[in-house]
Amino acid sequence: MDVRVLAVIAAPLLTLSFNASAAINDWTAIGPSGGAVNKIVYSQNGNTAYMAAAGGYYRSQDSGVSWQIVKSDFLNAPVDVSIDPSDPTRVYVVAQNAPCLYVSADGGATLAANTALPSAVTQARQIAVSKDGTTLYLSNDGRIFYSPDRGQTWLERTAISGDATTSVFKLLIDPTDPKTLYAAVATASTASEGIFATHDGAQSWQQLTSGAEGASLTQDLAINPTNPAQIWSAQYDGIWVSADRGLHWSNVFSTIMSAIAIDPTNPAILYAGTPYGKVYRSVNAGVSWGDVSGNILAGENLHLTVNPAAPTQLLAGGMAGVSGSSTSGTTWVSQQMGFNATAVTSFSADPTADRIYVHLRSNGVFYTVSGATTILPVNNDALLHLSTLPTIDVTAILAQPGRLFASLNNGLTFSTDGGTTWAPEVEVLPPTGSEQIFHMTSTPAAPQSILASSSGPTAKSSDGGATWQAVSGLPANSSVPAQTSAPNLLFAPSDPAIAYAAVYSNVAALGVYKSTDSGISWSAVNQNPVSSAQSLLAVDPGNASIVYGSGASSSEALLKSVDGGVTWSTLTWNISASADTPNVLTIDPVHPNVLYAASNERIGRSVDGGSSWETLRGSSLPLWIPSTLIADPNRPESLLVGTDGAGVQQITIAPDLTLAVTSPTSPLALGAAATYTYTATNQGPFDATGVKVTVQLPSSAQGVTASASGGSCVVSGIAASCIFPIVRKGANSSLTVTAVAPSAGAFQVSADVVGDQPDPDPSDNAVSSSATVTTISDMSVTATGNATAHVGDAVSYTLVATNVGPNVAPAAQLLFQLAAGLTPGTVTSADSTCTSGASGQVTCNLNDLAVAKAVTVTVNATAAAVGTQTSTAAVTSGATDLVSTNNSASATTTVSAVPPPANSGGGGGGGGDLSLFEVLALALIFLGSLLRSRAPGKIHRLITLGIRHRINSLVLKARKKRPCGFDSHRPLHFSLSGVSLRCPRA
Fold first, then answer.
1. CA dihedral 910, 913, 916, 918 (to 10 degrees)
2. CATH code where residue 584 lies
3. Which of 65, 70, 437, 914 has the most CB atoms at less than 10 Å from its CB?
């Protein structure tokens, strides 16, 4: 196994800020600390150290005790870091993907890409810097690039190997000769790998050792700073040394080695690390070696470095993190504060203890409790002592109420106190015990039933892990391969009798199998590799027949079965946006329609059982490689993501809901229905589920109803609740509540909105409406009458008073004021009692006017004066009238003078000008004579005609001088047996 290559490949990156509390709608790195280390170097002053590791490029300013992330947005983890020996402020960092070289000129505080590097450099690995800092060498696969001027210009030199699989583990430059360079090379062919050297500045290369020989594969190289002819090699078959620049080699230690370092102040002191986490020390130039591993917890050693300013201090970087020693290796402490780049294998939760356990294969077992954003270790030292390996190698965990199982390389152990203590012996599972467990599953409802899978047979325990036996019904020589992304062996949480397995023979999928007796026996439900899931991801927590999996092609990226695995349908998953198919899925344990799935470049969330997806995190840098997911059983809005090289990341899903109300205008009508419209809006950034609006009405409310479009409502007494299953981000949902206010007084209505997820801003989740309940009557009145009249004419006005409600108008009145130029007459009404005043005011009592009731009043009068005569009407009542514009009306009559009589014609003549007084006097004299004589009919007619003619002539003449009448206010009018005297019309 190539440890160094694995460390590089399995080290995607992450921003490693460490927060005290979980971010709302954002991601928080919560640990555990540590991660895979590729290289660590000390500065000459010893106070500053630099590290290229999973997570990015780090700097320490306390000799490696704690670390600060400087740059994290690499596509893959940086693989090398080096300091200019002539200028300690100049630091080089090598990344695998372009831009492949970064340079710091401020002591590693900041980095800038080297833009002069040729575009052909796309897979850089190692950099070597000459003692004077002028000459640089950079490897790109098997190709070598050279700079004579600190990276300002570059030339490509001769490739070490033309093999496309070439990988350079180490470039080592002779401190006395910048043209001499050594390279540790790995290729797919053992004959072309080993140690190579150039003595002409990479113009030509010489193979010094071969992987096909006893020297095996070289992992690390070191050169004696005081004797450059002496070279040390850490290889799979031990420590080798050459005294003649690599021409000849001798083995000084036969234990497999992966790292080597020389004390720069005393080259006789050497340190060597193994892939199994041990460190050895020699104080006599390799003649003898002592184990100084002690309590080191760095895991598989990848790099060792000695502090040049304090040579008793050294740092060991491995797959599990950084350990430091200040006693030349006799004691060690973990030194990885701020370094959060661990590789998480799986989660397992114990809801009763409110713990989520985190499984890191190289680091051990950790846990978070009560939703905390810190991760604590269990007693991993005890696990280490139970293992037969020098490092922790936990391959699976299973948390149950009050019990925690851990599978080691040599068997199964358990703890009954949350990992503080472990069973003193490990249990080997049948049938042979040679197969290590990689996955275990059970359900809280039946913890005594446990299934365990390995690369071989599947085992079952019916007594809580005390005894085990192989299951039956699976094909011969088959297995249920547990993958980090797809467990493939699952119990149904809602029915412990149901279990599912994706079965394989070697690499060939054999289909989906099902057990209905808690995993004791199995039978196939779908063995068609085309129409069946090839990996099983999760079972619905509430429905044992709903299973999620993935297929063999991108078109079957995500599958769902609703009939217990017999048939499968394809769910929507945007492959182009995700750059991959989902490799892990988890289900909200409380809200089963909420799913979380992840691919290498996307974490998605579905609120409708997988029909649609929203993105929680896309393909932004630094890239994450999610390896496992879990929704916290006690706070399911909290999602934990285990990553391969970025530790545990946590996010709290919290859509921001707001509530608004459209209320009826106050006051409210007594006994009438009032309508309230509520709008719940999701401000985002994620979809909300189970959005519930609760409306609380006053105790006096009656007839409460509620309805919602797209939701369901329930009314209980004076409260109404409406639930919307889904409110998408940026969308809103509305409901209407009606109620009757039967009594007068205050009417207070309150409402609030909540969802399945917490709300980051609860200040806008509640609204209230205040109103006063009173009698409301909309009274109106109309007034119509004669539009025109002459002085002395009779006029009439019709008044109609109406109540349109919604309440009876108590003590209603109609008031009518005649114009001053009208003489009051009679008033009539069938439905009211009216009185008239001397001033022309009419008052009508309408009593309690019913809704929709109309009362008609007729007012008669006489036109007494010329001009525009406007009379007004108004209605009032003891109720509140919200519409005042129709409470009054007016009627206008235009009054004009009496017109003159028509002219009878004939010749003119005679007659002097008489005053109106004279005409009147004459008429009176004539009347007296006539009454006395009582003339016969014929004589009477003649006399009448004569008088009429004479009077008309006189009147016409008089009118030219003076208006009719003795004064301007009383017109002249006489009638005498057919003889009339009136003012002529104009």
1. -80
2. 2.20.25
3. 437
Q: Are residues 587 and 683 in the same domain?
A: no
Do 390 and 456 lie in one domain? The reply is yes
Residue at which a domain ends, from 525, 548, 575: 575
Check whether residue 630 and residue 662 sit in a common domain: no
Q: How far apart are CA 458 and CA 480, in angstroms?
A: 7
CA quadruple 104, 109, 110, 111: dihedral sign:
positive
633 has a pLDDT exceeding 90: yes
Is 654 a residue whose pLDDT tops 50? yes
| pTM for the full predicted model | 0.80
Dihedral angle sign, alpha carbons of residues 144, 146, 151, 153? negative
pLDDT one-digit tens code per residue, 214-260: 457 889 999 999 999 999 999 989 999 999 999 999 999 999 999 99
pLDDT at 959 over 90: no
CA angle 123, 146, 308 (to 5 degrees): 90
Query: Are 9 and 133 part of one and the same domain?
Result: no
- So what's the pLDDT on residue 551? 84
Q: Does 588 lie in the same domain as 568?
A: no
902 assigned to some structural domain:
no
Candidates 37, 57, 47; CA nearest to 110 is: 57
Number of domains the chain is built from: 6
Each residue's pLDDT tens digit, 18-37: 334 568 999 999 989 999 99
**927: containing domain:** 916-982
Query: What whole-number distance in Å separates Cα of residue 455 and Cα of residue 383?
Result: 22
pLDDT tens digits, one per residue of 748-760: 999 999 999 999 9
Burial class (CB in 10 A: 0-12, 13-18, 19+), 420: exposed
Nearest-angstrom CA–CA distance, 741 and 68:
66
Please, how many CA atoms are within 13 Å of residue 294, restricted to the half-sphere of its CB?
Answer: 17
68-105: buried (b, 16+ CB within 10 Å) or exposed (e) per residue?
ebbbbebebbbbbbbbbeeeeebbbbbbbeebbbbbbe
- Mean pLDDT computed over every residue of the chain: 88
56-60 vs 49-53, strand pairing mode: antiparallel
Question: Does one domain contain both 248 and 305?
Answer: yes
Rounded to a whole number of angstroms, the CA Rg of the chain reads 52
282 and 270 within one domain: yes
| In the chain, % of residues over pLDDT 70 | 87
Local confidence band at 393 (pLDDT 50, 70, 90 cut-offs) = confident
441-464 burial string, b = 16+ CB within 10 Å, else e? Answer: bbbbeebebbbbbbebbbbbbbeb
Distance CA 904, CA 752 (A): 91
Match 């006096």 to its residue by tokens: 700
Question: Residue 875 domain-assigned?
Answer: yes
Please, where are the H alpha helices in 136-285?
Answer: none
CATH number, domain of 399, equals 2.130.10.10
Tell whether 903 is covered by a domain.
no
Residue 411 lies inside a defined structural domain of this protein = yes
Q: What percentage of residues in the chain have a pLDDT greater than 90?
A: 72
Q: Which of 315, 334, 353 is the last residue of a domain?
A: 334
